[in-house]
């Protein structure tokens, strides 16, 4: 693994067995996406037109009403909250994150607190929690609504599908009968494909997706939702800041035309990929890795069946042996040659679970599964 560009900077590349994470640069663009981005360089275009047409194109592709390309799902969340609070009132748009005189409370259920919620408060919104840790009901939501409430947030995760959380259907029902917006973080819910339109068609006003998960530039994402909200999101964006001279919070969340074109091309490819082949390949990679470690004492190895979402399959390793830690394996692989990154499960505070890790096939290039398998076997045998 020698790469001139990285070695010139003194960086030794790693093998990514964690998956699509921001920490490691998120995504790899297929050649078709790179080529589209390259050709976008050949001329300038008005960015507002590009945003408009790219959004229309993607909305149609996904089967949704409207779409806006943003600087990642994180920015999609931020711009959406700004749009909810300030609407199309320029006097309010320039005031954020000062929310004086605006409805600025966004409700979030206790079972869905997570680290991306910071993207919601960035533009000045305040989070108000409803429900308790064990169970969240419609009644909890109903009771937490005040005259400052502007929206309800919902985190979609179909891999977990938490039965004790308030469902999206119920969330929408209560929110709509109280004239509140509903925003959904569906960043990773990119497969099955109808998930790309499902939540907005159910009645969510805005749904955020991360394009990093399907081969677009890591720095892109989408707001998919109603035309009303997408138009209001546009007023918050870096383009509006420059074109209309209305200084919204979106200016630092700039994306370039190559990235927007890359996001369009990647979305096109994603909708037309042979997903059976993609999933079969991921499973095969996992089976290969598992074959190196499945008979090692003191661990349980499982190739996961999951095909929903952005990171199918995976090899789950559970440590059963006493007085040992997978964190030692994690560290040894990071310090080894070649450097391999795996990650033990983490809680909200970032503490590692020394008994549990999952190897993802997502970020592995050709020939790397074998290396990961061999190195894992070597280190697991030392425990
Ligand atoms: C990755 C992710 C985000 C942030 O997306 P970016 O495009 O990296 O800004 C938000 N929410 C969830 C659930 C994610 O997985």
Helix content: 25-40%
Q: What compounds are bound to the protein? A: pyridoxal-5'-phosphate
Shape summary: globular
Number of domains: 2
Number of strands: 13
Global structural class: alpha/beta
Q: Strand sequence of the main sheet, in spatial order?
A: 2-8-7-6-5-3-4
Q: List segments where confidence is low: pLDDT < 50 over at least 5 consecutive residues.
A: none
| Number of contiguous helices | 15
Biggest sheet layout: 7 strands, mixed
Return the average pLDDT rounded to an integer.
Answer: 97
CATH superfamily of the largest domain: Type I PLP-dependent aspartate aminotransferase-like (Major domain)
CATH architecture of the largest domain: 3-Layer(aba) Sandwich
């Amino acid at each position: 693994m020698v790469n001139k560009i990285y070695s010139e900077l003194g960086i030794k590349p790693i093998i990514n067995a964690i998956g699509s994470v921001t920490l490691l640069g998120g995504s790899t663009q297929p050649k078709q996406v790179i080529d589209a981005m390259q050709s976008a360089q050949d001329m300038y275009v008005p960015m507002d037109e590009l945003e408009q047409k790219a959004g229309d194109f993607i909305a149609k592709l996904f089967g949704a009403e409207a779409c806006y390309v943003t600087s990642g799902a994180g920015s999609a969340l931020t711009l959406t909250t700004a749009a909810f609070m300030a609407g199309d009132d320029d006097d309010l748009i320039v005031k954020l994150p000062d929310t004086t005189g605006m409805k600025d409370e966004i409700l979030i259920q206790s079972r869905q607190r997570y680290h991306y919620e910071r993207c919601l408060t960035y533009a000045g919104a305040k989070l108000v929690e409803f429900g308790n840790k064990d169970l969240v009901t419609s009644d909890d939501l109903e009771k937490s609504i005040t005259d400052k409430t502007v929206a309800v947030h919902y985190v979609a995760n179909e891999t977990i599908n938490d039965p004790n959380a308030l469902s999206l259907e119920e969330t929408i029902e209560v929110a709509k009968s109280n004239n509140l917006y509903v925003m959904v973080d569906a960043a990773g819910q990119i497969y099955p494909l109808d998930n790309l339109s499902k939540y907005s068609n159910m009645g969510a006003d805005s749904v955020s997706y991360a394009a990093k998960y399907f081969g677009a530039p890591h720095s892109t994402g989408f707001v998919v939702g109603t035309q009303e909200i997408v138009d209001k999101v546009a007023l918050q964006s870096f383009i509006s800041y420059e074109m209309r001279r209305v200084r919204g919070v979106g200016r630092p969340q700039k994306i370039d035309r190559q990235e927007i074109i890359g996001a369009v091309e990647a979305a096109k490819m994603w909708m037309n990929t042979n997903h059976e082949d993609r999933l079969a390949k991921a499973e095969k990679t996992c089976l290969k890795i598992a074959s190196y470690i499945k008979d090692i004492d003191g661990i349980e190895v499982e190739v996961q069946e999951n095909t929903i979402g952005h990171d199918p399959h995976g090899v789950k390793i559970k440590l059963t042996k006493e007085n040992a830690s997978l964190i030692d394996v994690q560290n040894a692989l990071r310090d080894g040659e070649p450097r391999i990154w795996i990650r033990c499960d983490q809680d909200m505070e970032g503490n590692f679970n020394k008994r549990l890790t999952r190897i993802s096939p997502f970020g592995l290039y050709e020939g790397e599964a074998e290396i990961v398998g061999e190195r894992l076997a070597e280190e697991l045998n030392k425990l």
